[in-house]
Amino acid sequence: MPTIALADSLRVALVRLSRRIRREHLDENLAIHHLSALGTMQQLEEPTLARIAALEGVKPPSMVKTLQHLESLGYIERSEHPTDGRMVVLRISDKGEAMIAEFRELRNRTLAAAIDSLDADDRATLERAIPILARLAEA
Known about the structure:
Layout: H1 3-22, H2 32-43, H3 49-56, H4 60-72, E1 76-80, E2 88-92, H5 94-116, H6 120-138
Antiparallel strand pairs: 1-2
Helix pairs in contact: 2-3, 2-4, 3-4
């Protein structure tokens, strides 16, 4: 198969798989960008509005709305910065951490159920493909 055809087939399969996994919801008040912002916050040692927006590839005013929504649902908390009155300290609340863990578990169970439907040969092929897919994601 030519490289461009392989790329197209892989892209289509990954998009379909991603959509299947994203259909799982715990909170109908959350869109994918809300969950993405929470995931970004988890990765940052000191999440700030500007850093979250930059990593999410959006402008700060858009991120303000996203964070306000997450705060209204009790998933994040904000407080004053201890030394810089212009900054706000953001953190994921205990409720937010619990929701993220439950949400990931739900998505993992959904994917695990699909994997369980594979025969042994396909499962072994999938296991061998994981490092390759990881490298493609980093390329």
